[in-house]
Amino acid sequence: MLTIRDLKMSLGGRTLFEHASMQVNYGDRVALVGPNGAGKSTLFSIILKTLQPDEGTIERDEWTSVGYLPQEAEALAEETVLDLATGRATEVPRLEKLLHQMEAAGAVSSPEYLEAHAKHDALSDAHAEAKAKKMLVGLGYRDSDFDRPAKEMSGGWVMRAHLARLLVMEPDLLLLDEPTNHLDLMALLWLQNYLKNYSGALLLISHDRQFMDEVVTQVYEISEKKIIAYTGNYGDYLTQREANYDTQLAAYKNQQKEIQALQEFADRFRAIPSKASQAMSKLKQIERLELIEKPLAPRKPFRFQIPPPPRGGQRAISLEGIHMAYGSNKVYSGLDLEVERGERTVLVGPNGAGKSTLLKILAGVVEFQQGERKPGHNSKIGYFSQHRADTLDLEKTVLDEVLASAPALREDEARGILGSFMFRKEEIYKLTGVLSGGEKSRLNLVKFLVDPPNLLLMDEPTTHLDIVTVESLTIALERYEGTLVFISHDVHFIRHLATKVLHVNGGRVTAYPSGYDYYLEKTGSSDDARSALTSA
Fold first, then answer.
1. Which residue intervals of 297-374 are DSSP H helices?
2. pTM (2 d.p.)
3. Mapping DSSP to helix (H, G, I), strand (E, B) and coil, where does residue 234 land?
4. Strand pairing partners for 510?
5. Could you give the C-alpha distances from 262 to 272, 273, 286, 294, in angstroms and in order?
6. Hey, is 467 helix, strand or coil?
7. What is the pLDDT of residue 533?
8. 8 Å CB contact between 361 and 368
9. Residue 232: is it exposed, middle or buried by C-beta count within 10 angstroms (0-12/13-18/19+)?
């Protein structure tokens, strides 16, 4: 289906790939992994022919149709959600124009014509609209959303509609770049189950290790300018990569010992006439060796300890009779909630149910119409916003932002902590306003580290973080001595941290006094996702 041979690609003076090869066959489910900046999205662009490599070949079977979901996309003009999911407002007209142009040019047997025709047929099928509606429902839309202008909705909801359109088309090869970033847990479970049964091949980039463990059967890692193949899911890849590293390191060390022994013999006896020929033979033996490069150690989670926060009272915070509405949209009516010291609570529920609003009420950053918010004794609250810039001074540098968070912190200590979070040298002098989403997330984490609250409220803290940083954060929060309330769609993160689940839906908050798997068992949520898949 897709074969890449001897690929070489350089961008900005840096070589991303050299003699890199990979293959995707029909029915494969492949994850592409590697650190941020390794070239994963660049490889997608090469496959999609929007970038030309310096060297190498990319071959696709002529009958193969490709669908691509980027990390971000916007709604255009006045198209509705259903227009976007069926493609009838923009995608179908674009395909029709392309087909007419190729027909006029006599290119009706070209792979491009065949692919465009297949996509047009899928979107023009009599059942396409019904199929699109089922996809939209599976991804969390209500029937009443279908005729809403897509541009009125958030970027995350627009991305879901784009994803629905791809699933309606059912391309032979589906390229997904961070498909879970904008999904709530139910939509993620639905997509996860759908992709397990998808008829075509799948190539995805993701920082959600649980999602990859459930979906993929092969992993390609971009490392040291090569693309290295591993069999199995993400967990299998980690095991194999560690074993490969140990084997390569042992081979490297053994060869270095051999070279050292040969060199010592030559140095010792080259000046002795009777031994000179043997000494020269040893040197030539070194020259003939095919040198083994020292392998790059796999990047592992960096371990950092959140200092003990000030001790608070047994009741961390409580809400009594909270009424909250945005205009005519009533979110909560008479909500009561109590959070106890030491609890690690995850808020789950569909998008739009009020999870982020509840977190903001707890944080004291939104005004409600009625009721009382009561922080506990000696409460010190930290709020990690989904919109990272909300808690940053965009005119401060990275270093100044950290120093302002903890005035007693020395500059050298701040530099050391920032270095652990991958802020290197000149990067600490960047203004926070120009940071990427991942950099803003890491900077906010550093701020909590240097001045820890005893009640930590976190809204999607793993978004924009790579897998290693997520694992580092997980390890730190497992040892955190304060109280944690958080929202996340990262199942691996939730399973390791949550000791209590609050299900938020329809203005009601239902407590499940145990972990995420207990919640799934009691609510049958995974069964709901499977039934949604069946209906689609």
1. 355-363
2. 0.81
3. helix
4. 503
5. 16, 18, 7, 19
6. helix
7. 36
8. yes
9. middle
pLDDT at 526 over 60: no
Q: What are phi and psi of 376, to 5 degrees?
A: -75, 175
Q: Which two tokens stand for residue 103?
A: 């027909």
At 20-51, the pLDDT tens digits run 999 999 999 999 998 777 889 899 999 999 99
393-411: pLDDT as tens digits: 888 999 999 998 888 888 8
Angle between helices 273-288 and 234-269 (to 10 degrees): 160
Closest CA to 289 of 317, 254, 313: 254
Tell me the two tokens of residue 180. 């879970």
- HSE toward the beta carbon, residue 59, CA cutoff 13 A: 11
Q: Tens of pLDDT along 128-166?
A: 999 999 999 999 898 999 999 888 887 788 899 999 999
Nearest alpha carbon to residue 113 among 122, 103, 125, 124: 103
Question: Which residues fall within 8 angstroms of residue 428, CB to CB, at 6 or more apart?
Answer: 397, 398, 399, 415, 418
Pick from 513, 464, 524, 474: nearest CA to 495: 474
> What CA–CA distances, in Å, run from 309 to 1, 353, 449, 495?
55, 31, 10, 24
CA distances from 433 to 18, 395, 461 (A): 35, 7, 19
Taking the C-alpha atoms of residue 485 and residue 319, their distance in angstroms, rounded to an integer, is 14
Q: Copy the structure tokens of residue 85.
A: 């999911």
In 10 A of CB 226, how many CB atoms? 15
Task: Report the SS3 class of residue 201.
Answer: strand
Distance CA 528, CA 505 (A): 15
Tokens at residue 136, please? 């939209």
Query: Tell me, what amino acid is at 4?
Result: I
* Other residues' Cβ atoms within 10 Å of the Cβ of residue 531: 13
DSSP per-residue string spanning 36-100: TTSSHHHHHHHHTTSS--SEEEEEE-TT--EEEE-S-----TT-BHHHHHHTTTTHHHHHHHHHH
**What is the residue-averaged pLDDT of the chain?**
89
Contacts of 64 (CB under 8 A, 6+ apart): 1, 2, 111, 115, 172, 173
Give CA torsion, residues 410, 412, 418, 424, to 10 deg: 150
Structure tokens at 138: 């599976």
- Residue reference for tokens 């060199």: 263
Give long-range contacts, CB 8 A cutoff, 24+ apart: 282-287: 286/259, 286/262
Cβ contact 82:146 at 8 Å? yes
Q: Are 533 and 193 spatial neighbours (Cβ–Cβ below 8 Å)?
A: yes
Nearest to 439 by CA among 426, 457, 423, 450: 423
